[in-house]
Amino acid sequence: MNKNKALVFLLLPLIIVGSVAIGIVLGGILTPSDVNDKNILFQSQQYSSAAKLNEILNYIVDMYVDSVDKKHLTEQSISTMLSELDPHSYYIPAKDFDEMNEPLEGNFDGIGVEFRIKDDTVMIISPIANGPSEKLGIKAGDRIIKVDDKRIAGVGITNDSIIKLLKGPRGTNVEVDIVRPGYSKVFHYKITRDEIPIYSVDAPYIIKGKTGYLRITRFSKTTYEEFMQATQKLLKEGMEKLIIDLRGNGGGVLAASTMIADEMLPKNAMIVYTDGRTRSREEVYATGGGTLEQVEIAILINESSASASEVLAGAIQDNDRGVIIGRRSFGKGLVQEQVMWPDGSALRLTVARYYTPTGRCIQKPYDSNLEAYHAEAYNRFDNGELLSADSIHFPDSLKYYTPSGKLVYGGGGIMPDEFVPLDTTDGTPYLYELRYKGILQDFALNYADTERKILMGKYMNAVSFKNKFKVNDDLFNSLIKYAEEQGMPRKLDEIMISKELIRRGIKAAISRNLYNDFGYYVITNEYDQTVQKAIESLN
Prior knowledge:
alpha+beta, 2-enoyl-CoA Hydratase, Chain A, domain 1, globular, 3 domains
């Protein structure tokens, strides 16, 4: 295994697409002499498959040697049944529905803070803009020590427990006691919970000249509105070219991506069509007059860009409307429909496939082996695809052509127009361990927390911080010492190789703690090869 490939495997936890864990439990196999043969005559001699399943379930509940949780057994049966269909049809128990649906809705009810547990105390990383906590004056760096007379500091509380205490229906109240660095008194707040947005559009800014940049992290019901607000801001600042970063975006609400595509495509240009056994073909076309029709477009994708992300990228690529840059996308071309049940549970069932304007379905192959399906992402590392486009091979049967004659492929994700390999330059096991173990992030959090007042006074915004803040040798060496205290031995040769990457990581992580995600990306984009390739292509 060469050095680059070895480093790729170290990177797996950072870039691998999330997958479904499938557990297979094998029980003891009984021989015939161990089985008490018994013919079971159900009440109805002729029964449907559904009735058969219900009869078997009832018989298990009545006769099994140990007590059985019928509800749990039923839900497990549903999940197992759906897993035989395709990798993206699944069942959501009622207890999990709200949590799983919030990212699609684009909001939840709560007090509006991002927090982290530091030294067994809940520390506010950032109050969410215009949320109830920010309006009351709660600040980054504040520590919550009590919630509704329940002490939560120094008692080993977990993230899940905190979320349950702070979230609740809008209009309800929660009282918190807060300790603020630099003050001796305890601050008491009565917070009225409200609708809290889950933003899906990050870091809109002019990255160079007249080129704008923004990230879409998921497609929710609010994404189109967020996108329009962000692009209107950029247009007012003189944007003529736009980079849309869809890397790591696993999809979401299909309509959000088609509405965004509509803003960029000319009237009557096809965006996507869907077709299924019980669903007639539905075609979506651009309506014309979009605010971005005259803006040059570059879309960034990688192996974790899926579903609605691929719809948007495919629409732009197939209409020769912009350039797609990065690495081959995930390959999810199935459309799910959500059905709610009276008990609050839901079924997300694949009812159609989607096709890009040239007619390609980009769904990668699958069968009932879900483990193999999700392992396909690992295979891309193994076969060298992330390091070289020459490792990617499509059969001739999957060739398609855009109106300009550009060759594109179906059957396995969106292949970018311009390939950018995974950057392993100067990467070392020491660097990756700093990241994986959260040591670099913890160090940056501690530094930002201690120096917050000074830093926020010295640097007006994230751009000012990017341009002026330097990670000097003292700060760099403090991280190495901190890592050693956390059990990471000094590996001087690896530290020297990765020194510049570690410096950048420190700066970006501190900036994120001060200025949220925008602070992070305004720094990392300076060195991101895919982003820089997009700037080069557009200019």
